[in-house]
Structures are given as C-alpha cells and as structure tokens.
Amino acid sequence: MTIRVFLADDHAVLRDGLRLILESQPDIRVVGEAADGREAVRQVRELPPDVAILDITMANLNGIEAAGQIAKHCPAVKVIILSMHSSAEYVHRALRAGARGYLLKESVGREVILAVRRVVAGQRYLSERLSADLLADAAFRSDGVPGVPTLEQLSPREREVMQLLVEGRSGKEIAEALDISPKTVDTYRSRLMEKLGVDNLPALVQFAVRNGVIAPGK
Fold first, then answer.
1. 119 and 111 in contact (C-beta within 8 Å)?
2. 19 with 101, same domain?
3. Of 17, 82, 122, 201, which residue is least crowded by CB atoms under 10 Å?
4. Are residues 27 and 110 in the same domain?
5. Phi/psi at 45 (nearest 5 deg)?
6. What's 72's domain CATH number?
7. What gap in Å lies between CA 185 and CA 205, rounded to an integer?
C-alpha cells in the first residue's frame, strides 16, 4: 500500500527537503503541498491523503487550527504537527486539536519517516526530545492557570478572526476570507478581545506571539 502524504509549510525549501526524504521510501508518495493553513485544509478535504504534515506557524490559519478542521472534516487523515516549540503547552494544544504526531523541526530529517509510519499504524508519535515529564506537565496544565487568558477560551471562529487580525488584515478582508459579514467580524473582534482582556491590537499581537499563533516579526 502506498502512503499518501500532504505537506504544508510556508517555506518551499523545507517542503522540498521533506518531499525528498519521504519519497526516498518506495511506499511513500507526496500528493500535495500548500504554503498556508487555509489552503492546506481545502486541499486535504479534496484529496484526502493518509497523512498531513502541517507547520505550526502558517499564514491565514496556523497548523493547530488547521489540524482541528481536518480532524473534524476528514477524521481518517492522520495529522503530524511540525514545530520549533518543545514546550508542554504547544504539544498539549496540538494533541487536543486532533494531531497524532508532533515533530520538532530540529530532528525532522531523522524522524519524519518513522512518524509517518507510526501514525498510519494507528499510533501516536512524538519527537524523541519530548519526554514523559513534558507530557505529564501538559496534562497538568490542561485546565490553564486561573486568571491567565488562554486560547482555549476562544471559539474556533474567534481564533481564526484573531489570527487574521494580528496578520494585519482589514475587517473587509477577514469577512471575505471567512465568508461572513464585516459586522460579524466586528462582533467576533469585540468578543475575543473582551475574553482575553486586551483593548488594543498591539496587545493582541503580543498574546498571539506568546501562544504561537504567529511567529515574532510577522
């Protein structure tokens, strides 16, 4: 059986490298690529592949939110998150979104083939650097710290609107991207900022960077 893999990362060089590694195996084939999360979800729903490897930080829709949408619409697709972050918070969020694997970019060359085979076999795969202690910490923190805003306080749609806001999109652009009205965008913006306890865009950007929604400097 050929394992069909989809790649999503905003760096073409990394996608090319992953493709070379994966297709060095006679039973693995890369069937599609995307540079942003929203396009990744669209293509995965059309294909669908056996495995989708998603960068955690992508424009329009980050990898964790994309994983959640894929899990909802294509539950048979096994998602592997590709990330620079090794903290418990990121791992926990990825697994809660429905990802079956979590790979650190620093070790992806050695581990990506193993990760693909493991998730296809119905197992989870976490990079070797992610210890049992880290996972225990992730479970401990699942309810968050009292009084500290978390992404889990927001609905999936509010998180989508937040990402587009902090990427600098106008209300009209967000409305077109999500197929909703500008007035509805304003409602989501007010609601999410109230939930997070922020009252301006710079503070919202800082929250998004701290929580891995966007990369610093984007």
1. no
2. yes
3. 122
4. yes
5. -65, -30
6. 3.40.50.2300
7. 17
* H runs (alpha helix) in the chain: 12-22, 37-46, 63-73, 88-97, 108-120, 132-140, 156-166, 171-178, 182-196, 201-210
Q: Are 108 and 158 found together in one domain?
A: no
The radius of gyration of the chain's CA atoms, rounded to the nearest angstrom, is 17
What CA–CA distance (Å, rounded) separates 56 from 62?
6
Domain hosting residue 206, numbered range:
151-210
Q: Which class for 143: exposed (0-12), middle (13-18), buried (19 or more C-beta within 10 A)?
A: exposed
Q: 144: phi > 0 → left, psi -120 to 50 → alpha, else beta; which? A: left
- CATH code (residue 202): 1.10.10.10
- What pTM was computed for the model? 0.78
For residue range 40-71, what is the model confidence (pLDDT) as tens digits?
999 999 999 999 999 999 999 999 999 999 99
Q: Which residues contact 47 (CB under 8 A, 6 or more apart)?
A: 4, 6, 31, 32
